[in-house]
Amino acid sequence: MNYLPVIYVNMRNTIRLNVITLFDPWKSPLCTCRSKYSLHPYTGCSHFCKYCYATSYIGLKPSMPKKNFLNKLIRDLKRIDRNLVVEMSSSSDPYPPIENTLLLTRRTLEILVEHGIKILITTKSDIVVRDSDLLVKTPSSVMITITSLDEELVYKIEPNAPPPSRRLNTIEKLVSRDIPVGVRIDPIIPGLNDDSKSIEELIKELSCIGVKHIVTSSYKAKWDSLRRLTNTFPDKKDYLYKLYVENGVRIRNYFYLPVELRKKLLKPVIENAVKYGLTVATCREGLREFFKAPSCDGQHLIK
After folding, report:
1. Of 169, 192, 214, 275, most Cβ neighbours within 10 A?
2. CA geometry: angle 77, 83, 89, nearest 5 deg
């Protein structure tokens, strides 16, 4: 079945909130997310992914807990729309290594569960399994990012994140606890993780272990992330600069690939997801013909 994205127009946030914000990424005309809230217990991100877009405005910083976060969260929960999903987190991973000792995300979940909030977790970390006892108590779903099964490649582009094998194991554990799981194959970077056979191998594996949904997107370059990638893969420098800087399209301070190249890059993900019976959508692409899911971000998985 083909789907058109269900897009809700975000209401103006007339009530001042402290740590919960309406997700509205720079009012991007290419964003297809339903209205939702975004919540980040940490600033910065210790995974230090080479392609990260958030570093362009917060810098390349390790994860640090926000001050007085839980008290601010409790105040915010009195004023939000309870019909909207709260996503943790859209830019700073809610499960950095220091979460093992600080337990800030776990305490956050305890409060959200107590208030009956619908929760969407987006992470690269296997620490999320620890909190499955909380996630089963409220409507929730988990989106795990897996950019490739190639552990050597993943180590280079996501140096401090768990390897793909641990993320697959995480998915299996969550599914066994009846927590719906989707995967972000995101971003697809030309010349690095765009091999169609490798993509099919990944999606086939995901379908076998119980994944229900996939969201994908092409890499959108910013100057700092492009420098990091080309420093890591110097043999790709001329190729990536030609694609993005010389021939790319500037959209909202990002270098996008030309639309036909983006379609070509993402088509193997879409076709293989359909082939293996998964819902699938794109993220910040505007490619509605590729939208084959009730939501792009995995909200439709929430029971």
Report:
1. 214
2. 65
Asked whether residue 16 is domain-assigned, the answer is no
Q: By three-state DSSP, how is residue 6 classified?
A: coil
pTM: 0.93
- Measure the CA–CA gap between 119 and 138, rounded to whole angstroms: 8
CATH of the domain at 65: 3.20.20.70
Number of DSSP helices (H) and strands (E) in the chain, helices first: 11, 12
Domain-located, residue 33: yes
Per DSSP bridges, beta strands 254-256 and 140-145 are: unpaired
The radius of gyration of the chain from alpha carbons, rounded to an integer in Å, stands at 18
pLDDT at 29: 78
Q: Write out the H or E segment, with its range, that includes residue 105.
A: helix 104-114
Q: Give the pLDDT score at 10.
A: 42
For the chain, list residues with pLDDT below 70: 1-15, 25-26
Domain hosting 114: range is: 24-301
